[in-house]
């Protein structure tokens, strides 16, 4: 059954959007034709992105090798991310608007950003940072962090950042791998109306990295300098930054992405898929520890202004970000599905009492957005809002399924596969599926795929992470359905899928059913193998304040799952917990909880420093002990 259409692009958008101009120049009539051409002719497509968005001279060869892993892009070409960001800028034009808790919004022009970056580059150079050296940042989401990143990129050095709310063990697990030359940090940060002192954490971090020179923002100022901002042009596959897997199990994978690959991919997605144009103001709520920070900073590659917000999205209430949207005349509001869900539960009314007339689009990522979440945006933000739900991830630092300004929005569905992203749904034998759920795969390389994992000298961890299931084809680890209309539905992680009686169900589908029960505000479900018996499928729920897990509530949950999902996916037990454990970027810890309940020692199952709420693991550890399977 085809879901309802919630939005169709107005003629004004169809005429002005960059994607439409790009498509018409190629003589193609539909987005589907354009997408097909982009994946069938990758050299022509990616070469056109290079040329259209001003990356300079290049050789004739675009893709010297299409092997995965090991694709070779633009051999012999030289680039610099920061140079492209500052290219042809009006020094008086607005680059950044920065806000946060209990502070006035600040406006940073391109001239001011260039001056900040120039001083940061001189300071890094004075500390011995050069091409290939690593700069680690333990910093909040503020303009000074952006300038430090651009300075790092200008030198051909390699950037890596963590949010100051990361615990010291989690930071050390990440930064110690890459052996930074310089660590830039703050001693305190503000969140949820409180100031947090990080001096003790910093002492632990710096002690673990004796080779890194430490620079404290606010104490060690960048030097005044007359040196011009210069740019070290580097090969296409030279490292730009290091991102990390969530770090919930074992040492985080240090994912290295290239200057050229990120430039090409972000120029494509921000211009053609987000339609970032002059006068637009782009925002995505994030911290410096999530890939969405890297993504929104790349908004500086466009003619738009980027918006930064430092602090809690819920302080003093969930109205804070909507107030920020109104006063900054935000045009694109990027957030997470969990934030939209929280607004729904709290009864937030974004459009009431504030002017959101500038807001054209809302983006959602991080986890699948429910159909109810889609409807809520159109009912409470505005019927003329372009809502684009996206899916991709840290691994490529982009969305390869998501927004297309020329296409309608169907309730609960992602609009289409992104240009240049050969996304398919595959069955276990590697056969493509349409209208059925399968593994999300990429059958052809994309430029922003990792060039390697740091320290993975023989490439074995890289191959194991993505290419063991289907040799030569990227398996992402998500369940996806490609519909006959070309839209997509993400059903959650394929490695956390609940398989009952041969019927596979993404956890997102179960959560959608459970969260429709009024008494429930959050949930976690796992499927735990039990030797000689059917698997045990406990459902853990967080209840609304004042509610109790009565027989009636349990019956309502079971009924909803039975009706919305399948009788096979009715939970074995329903257990109340105070909170669901999540990573610092908001992802539910399904697999670590499953491993704990299977007997894995908790310290091996999850790194507590990588969690937003470490104490939330304790009930699961206790439950494992009660069941006699505890490895702790």
Classified by CATH, the class of the largest domain is Alpha Beta
Low-pLDDT windows of residues: none
Overall geometry comes to globular
How many distinct folded domains? 2
Mean pLDDT, rounded to whole units? 93
Q: Could you tell me the number of beta strands?
A: 35
Q: Strand order within the widest sheet?
A: 6-5-17-16-18-19-20
The CATH superfamily of the largest domain appears as ANL, N-terminal domain
Architecture per CATH nomenclature, i.e. the level-2 architecture of the largest domain: 3-Layer(aba) Sandwich
CATH topology of the largest domain: Rossmann fold
Percentage beta strand: 15-25%
Summarize the structure in words.
By secondary structure, the protein is α/β, with parallel strands linked by helices. The protein has 20 helices and 35 strands. The strands form eleven sheets. A seven-stranded mixed β-sheet has the order 6-5-17-16-18-19-20, sandwiched between helices. A five-stranded antiparallel β-sheet has the order 26-25-27-29-30. A four-stranded parallel β-sheet has the order 8-7-9-12, with helices on both faces. Helix 8 runs parallel beside helix 9 (about 200-210). The longest helix is centred in the N-terminal third of the chain and has 17 residues, at about 110-125. It is globular. Pfam families: ACAS_N (PF16177), AMP-binding (PF00501), AMP-binding_C (PF13193).
């Amino acid at each position: 059954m085809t879901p309802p259409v919630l939005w169709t692009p107005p003629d004004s958008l169809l005429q002005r959007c960059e994607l439409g101009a790009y498509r018409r120049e190629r003589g193609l009539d539909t987005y589907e034709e354009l997408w097909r051409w982009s994946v069938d002719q990758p050299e022509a497509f990616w070469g056109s992105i290079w040329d259209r968005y001003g990356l300079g001279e290049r050789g004739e060869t675009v893709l010297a090798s299409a092997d995965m892993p090991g694709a070779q892009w633009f051999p012999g070409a030289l680039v610099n991310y920061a140079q492209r960001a500052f290219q042809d800028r009006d020094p008086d034009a607005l680059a950044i608007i920065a806000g946060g808790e209990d502070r006035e919004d600040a406006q940073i022009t391109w001239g001011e950003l260039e001056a900040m970056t120039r001083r940061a580059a001189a300071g890094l150079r004075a500390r011995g940072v050069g091409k290939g050296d690593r700069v680690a940042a333990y910093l909040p989401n503020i303009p000074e962090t952006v300038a430090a990143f651009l300075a790092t990129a200008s030198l051909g050095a390699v950037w890596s950042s963590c949010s100051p709310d990361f615990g010291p063990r989690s930071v050390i697990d990440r930064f110690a791998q890459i052996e930074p030359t310089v660590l830039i940090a703050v001693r305190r940060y503000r969140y949820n109306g409180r100031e947090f002192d990080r001096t003790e954490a910093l002492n632990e971090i710096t002690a673990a990295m004796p080779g890194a020179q430490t620079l404290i923002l606010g104490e060690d100022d960048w030097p005044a300098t007359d040196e011009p901002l210069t740019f070290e042009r580097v090969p296409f596959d030279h490292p730009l930054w290091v991102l990390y897997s969530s770090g919930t199990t074992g040492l985080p994978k240090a994912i290295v992405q290239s200057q050229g690959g990120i430039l090409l991919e972000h120029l494509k997605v921000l211009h053609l898929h987000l339609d970032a144009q002059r006068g637009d103001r782009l925002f995505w709520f994030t911290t410096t520890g999530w890939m969405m920070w890297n993504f929104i900073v790349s908004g500086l590659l466009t003619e738009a202004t980027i918006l930064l917000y430092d602090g809690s999205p819920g302080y003093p209430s969930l109205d804070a970000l909507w107030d920020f949207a109104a006063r900054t005349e935000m045009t694109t509001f990027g957030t997470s599905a969990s934030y939209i869900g929280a607004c729904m539960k709290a009864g937030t009314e974004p459009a009431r009492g504030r002017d959101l007339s500038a807001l054209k689009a809302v983006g959602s990522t991080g986890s699948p957005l429910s159909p109810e979440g889609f409807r809520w945006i159109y009912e409470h933000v505005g019927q003329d809002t372009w809502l684009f739900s996206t899916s991709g991830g840290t691994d490529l630092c982009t969305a390869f399924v998501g927004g297309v300004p020329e296409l309608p929005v169907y309730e609960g569905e992602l609009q289409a596969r992104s240009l240049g992203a050969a996304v398919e749904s595959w069955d276990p034998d590697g056969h493509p599926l349409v209208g059925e759920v399968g593994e999300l795969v990429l059958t052809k390389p994309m430029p922003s795929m990792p060039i390697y994992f740091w320290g993975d000298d023989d490439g074995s961890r890289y191959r194991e992470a993505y290419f063991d299931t289907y040799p030569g084809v990227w398996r992402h680890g998500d369940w996806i359905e490609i519909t006959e209309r070309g839209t997509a539905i993400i059903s959650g992680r394929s490695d956390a899928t609940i398989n009952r009686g041969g019927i596979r169900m993404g956890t997102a589908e179960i959560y959608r059913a459970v969260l429709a029960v009024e008494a429930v505000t959050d949930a976690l479900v796992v499927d735990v193998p039990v030797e000689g018996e059917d698997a045990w499928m406990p459902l853990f729920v967080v209840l609304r304040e004042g509610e109790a897990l009565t027989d009636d509530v349990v019956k309502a949950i079971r009924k909803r799952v039975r009706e919305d999902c399948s009788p096979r996916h009715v939970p074995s037990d329903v257990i109340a917990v105070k909170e669901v454990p999540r990573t610092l970027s908001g992802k539910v810890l399904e697999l670590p909880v499953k491993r704990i309940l299977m007997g894995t020692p908790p310290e091996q199952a999850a790194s507590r420093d990588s969690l937003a709420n470490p104490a939330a693991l304790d009930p699961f550890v206790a439950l494992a002990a009660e069941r006699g399977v505890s490895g702790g």
